[in-house]
């Protein structure tokens, strides 16, 4: 797939006002003019002590938006919430969101939603890691329900490329968007249980996955044997920097997760991977476009939903 009309897409993105539903850039300019600055400052403080917060917030934001929409439901702290099931058990960064919310409540009570805080914090953490800085529409409201069962429908690390593209396509995101968003793995981390079978017994063969570089197999095997709960960066060269190195690596059989590796060889995505690998600026621009689109998935606006006082509980609790 060629990106023939990418310049036209970018031109449209920057010339026309960014509005999705009732979201708009600068939503809090009058009601809480320091909102985005407060978010940025607290994210910067966290990033200084823990640069892995970028990966944590990206994962949190993705998992929120793809389960019932970008409504802050992943933040809810109850036994039946999305937060405590399946792949969300390893999501982190909640304390930072709560810290930001407390500061915003002190300055602008009941004004800035938790869903917007998550979107803004993710954007700011990406920029701090060297990724794109982009305007993001705000005005989301927090949802009034949680969907724990929906967490199990999230795309997994062994999914086929067809399933991966369908998953994003169901939310009106195209191949360019989907591949760019998976490029967030440039700062991602994977636990060994997600790829252990690729190292020792791929598809029951008793051998490593032949699509994985043999040196990477040896390196990951050492890592996975080193501790009780081992994990590793999905970008093997610049794991804390938001860049296109991930795409170059999967093109030379150095993808840690099976889905990542498949992107480089499947005819539906391989040409997009090649173009992102060759052009860091192209990848970052498309990632920003895709993040804005993702951040508008099934949002609550206007009078729908609520503005939570605490991100971890509905207001009536």
From TrEMBL:
It is found in: Secreted. The gene is BnaA01g34030D. Removal of H(2)O(2), oxidation of toxic reductants, biosynthesis and degradation of lignin, suberization, auxin catabolism, response to environmental stresses such as wounding, pathogen attack and oxidative stress. These functions might be dependent on each isozyme/isoform in each plant tissue. It is an enzyme of class 1 (oxidoreductase). Residues 1-21 form the signal peptide. One of its GO terms (biological process) is response to oxidative stress. InterPro entries: Haem_peroxidase (IPR002016), Haem_peroxidase_sf (IPR010255), Peroxidase_pln (IPR000823), Peroxidases_AS (IPR019794), Peroxidases_heam-ligand_BS (IPR019793), Secretory_peroxidase (IPR033905). Its EC number is 1.11.1.7. Belongs to the peroxidase family. Ascorbate peroxidase subfamily. It catalyses: 2 a phenolic donor + H2O2 = 2 a phenolic radical donor + 2 H2O. This is Peroxidase. Gene3D superfamilies: 1.10.520.10, Peroxidase, domain 2.
């Amino acid at each position: 797939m060629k990106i023939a009309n990418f310049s036209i897409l970018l031109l449209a993105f920057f010339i026309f006002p960014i509005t999705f539903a009732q979201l708009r850039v600068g939503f809090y300019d009058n009601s809480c003019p320091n909102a985005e600055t407060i978010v940025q400052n607290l994210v910067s403080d966290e990033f200084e002590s823990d640069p892995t917060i970028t990966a944590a917030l990206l994962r949190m934001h993705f998992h929120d938006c793809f389960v019932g929409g970008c409504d802050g439901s992943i933040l809810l702290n109850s036994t039946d919430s999305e937060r405590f099931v399946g792949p969300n058990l390893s999501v982190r960064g909640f304390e930072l969101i709560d810290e930001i919310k407390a500061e915003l409540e002190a300055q602008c009570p009941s004004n800035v939603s938790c869903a917007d805080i998550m979107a803004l914090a993710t954007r700011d953490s990406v920029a701090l890691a060297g990724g794109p800085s982009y305007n993001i529409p705000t005005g989301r409201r927090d949802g009034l329900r949680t969907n724990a069962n929906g967490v199990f429908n999230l795309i997994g690390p062994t999914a086929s490329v067809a399933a991966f593209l369908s998953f994003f396509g169901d939310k009106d995101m195209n191949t360019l968007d989907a591949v760019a968003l998976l490029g967030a793995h440039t700062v991602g981390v994977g636990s060994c249980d997600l790829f252990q079978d690729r190292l020792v017994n791929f598809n029951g063969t008793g051998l490593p996955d032949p699509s994985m570089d043999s040196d990477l197999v040896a390196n990951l095997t050492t890592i996975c044997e080193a501790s009780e709960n081992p994990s590793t960066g999905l970008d093997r060269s610049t794991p804390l920097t938001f860049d296109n190195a991930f795409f170059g690596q999967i093109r030379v059989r150095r993808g840690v997760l099976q889905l990542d590796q498949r992107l480089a060889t499947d005819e539906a995505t391989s040409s997009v991977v090649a173009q992102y690998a060759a052009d860091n600026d192209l990848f970052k621009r498309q990632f920003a476009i895709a993040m804005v689109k993702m951040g508008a998935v099934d949002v609550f606006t206007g009078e729908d939903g609520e503005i939570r006082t605490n991100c971890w509980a509905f207001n009536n609790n």
